[in-house]
Each structure stands twice: as C-alpha cells, then as structure tokens.
Amino acid sequence: MVLNAADEEISSLNSVNGEDREILIDHREMNSTLPSYLASLGFKTRITRLPHGDLRLSERILIERKTARDLMASIKDGRLLSQCRSLRASASRPMLLIETGGDAGYGLHPNAVLGALAHITLDMGIPVMMTKDAMETAHFVSIAAQREQDLLESFHEMVNSETTTGTELKSIMEQAAREIDALLIKPEASHPWLESAQQQLERCYEHALSQLTGVKDEERDVMNAFSPHLGALFTATEEILIKETGCGSEIANRVLQILKENSSIKSQ
After folding, report:
1. Long-range contact set of residues 249-257: C-beta below 8 Å, sequence gap at least 24
2. Which of 101, 135, 249, 268 has its CA 20 to 30 A from that of 229?
3. Cβ neighbours of residue 18 under 8 Å, at least 6 residues apart?
4. Is residue 119 domain-shared with residue 207, that is, in the same domain?
C-alpha cells in the first residue's frame, strides 16, 4: 500500500505540466539554459528585473539560484548572507537553490560552506535545496510551482465553501439592523437596549416587589417610596419607614414583617 502510494506520487511528479503558468525570471538568468528548460515543461517564462532573487513562482515563493562557482564567490566576498537577508524580507517562502554541478573543477565541497549554510538554514530559516544542474533545477521548480498552485486552489475552494456562511451572517446583521431601526423609530416601546441605568434599576425594583406575597395597597405605597433602591428598602428600620413615607407605626411594622418573610428576594 505504501509502495503503491509512493509510485503514484512519483508518477504525478514526473508528469508535471506547467499549463502555461507564468514564472518570473531575473534578467541575469537570461543567458542560462534554465528558461528554455522551464518553457519545455509547459511554463510561460517572463524575463524581468527582480529586486531580489532569481525566480519568483508566486507572491510567497522566491528562489535565489546559485551554481557552485557562484556560491563560493558569494561566500568569499560576503554577498551571500546579505542576499539571503534580502530574500527573507522579500517573500514569506524564500529558498536558496544550489546547483552543485557535474564538473569536478566546479564541484562543491561541503566543508567549504558548512558554516554559511548552517547559518542560512538554522538561524535565518531559509531552506537550502541542492540540484545537479539546470535541468534538474527546472524539474524542481516545476514541482514547487505545481504545489503552490494546488495550495492556492485549495484556499479558493475553502473561501467559496464559506460563502453560504457569509450570506447567513449578512442576513443576521440585516435583521439586527432592522430591529435597531424599529427601536429608534418607536422610542416609547419598552426594551432593555434603550433603557438608562436608572430605568433598569426601576424595572428591577418593580420586578422584585411583584414577587412579594400578601402585600396590600397601602403597604405597597410605602415600599414604592424607596424605588429604585431595593437595598435601602430591605435594610430600613421602623423609624426610617415612618420618616421617609409618613406612614403609621402599624403599617411600618407590617411592611417589615412582609420583607422578613420574603428576605430570599434580597439575595436574588
């Protein structure tokens, strides 16, 4: 099963078709064989002046291509690290691609660049890919471009699949806007959204008194005198009730008894 999956993956990589997708190539690569190799794989190549890097596959992917000779020279004159820093700043998915070469005279010795490559990969976070020659580079670039295209298509499908959710959200927002407009047009309509803090306290006070049992009109009149301060009502003494409302001692005591019997409302 695993071998079959691997074979299928290899077959798909071998059959990469550029489908006329565009790859931007820096003008310094114009005389190399890479543009023609990419064109033979079905890509549309456009020679341009890239500020940084040699190949731009998309907004995210930017590749700096170097031969073994280029790499050695750029390490010697100190350009490599500055080029990689610029590469890092110019794309979210930068890459350094090195063509090791098949000629022994230009072959790349790993120990000569070990420190630089370690810094680039580990400290700067730029992946390093090695290929044999321009043809192998073209095949690698074609595969990378195909992967990027597949990713973009999956993003596009995901966005389209969320269109319904977006439509539903828009409908909900429109409904909410209509509700708010209705409240503003009829301000006399009672609604918690339009209440001031004082109105909210008064509404809560009335609700609490409605839960009391055995209350007569004269006793309710005494209680209403403390609106909207529910705490003041439940902590009032006989003297305070008489002073604040002018009621008699008998009514004041009946109010206190009612409040005592319904003290559970105080904690709600």
Report:
1. 251/218, 251/219, 251/222, 252/222, 254/219, 255/219, 255/222, 255/223
2. 249
3. 38, 41, 42, 43, 44, 142, 145
4. no
The C-alpha atoms of residue 42 and residue 157 are separated, in whole angstroms, by 25
The domain that holds 13 is classified in CATH as 3.40.50.10130
Is residue 24 included in any domain, yes or no?
yes
Which among 149, 176, 203 is the end of a domain? 149
Does any domain span residue 215? yes
Least confident range of 38-47, 144-153, 169-178 = 169-178
Query: What is the Cα–Cα distance from 40 to 58, expressed in whole angstroms?
Result: 20
In DSSP terms, 64 is beta-bridged to 96
In a domain, 155, yes or no: no
pTM above 0.85, yes or no: no
pLDDT digits (tens, 9 = 90+) for 68-112: 888 888 888 889 989 999 999 999 999 999 998 755 444 546 666
- Whole-angstrom distance, CA of residue 119 vs CA of residue 114: 9
Span 163-206, pLDDT tens digits = 555 677 777 788 777 777 766 666 555 555 555 667 777 888 78
Which two tokens mark 244? 């604040």
* 243 is a domain residue: yes
Q: Which domain holds residue 224?
A: 192-267
